[in-house]
Amino acid sequence: MIHPFGLRNLGDILRLPAHGESVAVIDLRDATQSRSESAVEFDELCVAVSRGLLRRGVKRGARIGILAENRLEFIACYCGTMRMGAVAVPVNHKLPRATIEHIFRDSGIELAFSDAARRSHLPSTVPVIDFDATGATGFDAFLDAGPMDTWLPADGARAARRGDDDLAEILYTSGSTGLPKGVPLGHHGQLWAIGHYLEPLPVSAPQETTIVVAPLYHMNGLFNITVALAKRTTVILLPRFDARRYLDTVACYRCTVLSGIPTMFALMVRERELVEQLDLRSVHDITIGSAPLTDALLAQVHAVFPNAQIKNGYGTTEAGPAVFGPHPDGRPRPPLSLGYPFADVQCALVDGPSAEQGVLALRTPALTHGYLNQPQATASRMRDGWYLTGDVVRRDAAGFYFFVGRADDMFICGGENIYPGEIEKLLERHAAVAQAIVVPAPDDIKGQIPVAFIVPRKGAAPSAEEIKQYALREGPTFAHPRFVEFIHSLPVSGTHKIDRAALTAEAARIVRAAGRSQ
Is the model's pTM score more than 0.90? Predict the structure, then answer.
């Protein structure tokens, strides 16, 4: 395998182009004061992280956790960890503490970086470097400035055969069991994916600017960061998404390239008065992914960003974020198409009604070797070197692919995967709940939202707000039911199974009546 420009360590991605003193990262975490670092300064910070880890005795292959909102130090620790040969493990800070502790145990994290707001979420047995602390346990005291040679993993086919010699990161994705599954990913596979978006940059190339607001524990945010740094694009970091602040930032910094999920753009297009006041013509490229995109939203985004080319993106954590691209014959991509498979990506459509529609199976150089410590989950999704995505897609006569839906009952709410069965189990642990069924309902902002139908225990009279607060407290915030309806009994079909179709129709009616869906 040939990596972009001969690079072998993903942590070295900043060193690809001749950045020089150009601004690499602008951190807007503090709304009152921005923090900018040139490529040279940021590269030195990444090296100081690597040397700091070595000074603490961290060995190659050790798992290093990162639990924080988006910030400059997060990226430096992500790159610095990989440069010295350790394995970066970004952790979803929105998860309950018990789930975070599971991830630490499952991946074997032996040292963690954290911001002050989330330090209490970490297991007490793991040493922590606090980004915001000023004493001996703080980030500044941890850093060790100076030169260092990057550790080089095994190259090419040898790396593919010996996965541990190539391991760069472990990303966690929600699983059908409810507990996040660890996805080990190698240097060579991620660099292969990045290579699809790179081309030699002349010194005189115009300076591009992008915003990364997707959380950095997610493949979406991490991949956008690495591609931007490799392409000499200035990265503006926001800690979380707010439609008005995002739009103001685009206009203020004259951003040229944007990416995100449909929910983000649905919220932006609602800010009509603000959009009319801002000059957003600098944006020339937008990629929207991680959830289904509609014609209506596409038209609205075009109206807000009139000079932008908008693409429907697709990728997976398990098989890589580079799957579809332009047509090899130069044919224009249909508006909602995912694109045409890259030449070195193998696609198959299985278990479908025809040869042109089915569950998408992928085989790519970025494919994980399997889920961490979960042989059953691996066996169910990895078959003979193929990854079964669970996404139903169709292929047109020209070879373009289009997203149809999910093969199982999982649905996506604001870019987050939600499994109804796990919410139902959580709700039924409430003392006042006898039965619970959760179904998706259409929502103009989130795409789909969870609606819960509850059969109370005899003599109990819980309120909808009580159930919502319980779900928020005991589970992931993104999975809590937005509407709770109490019923005497659950409807059943002719086969005596719960009639989910009837409940789904009722949920859609409830959401429409509340003004959440057209």
Answer: no
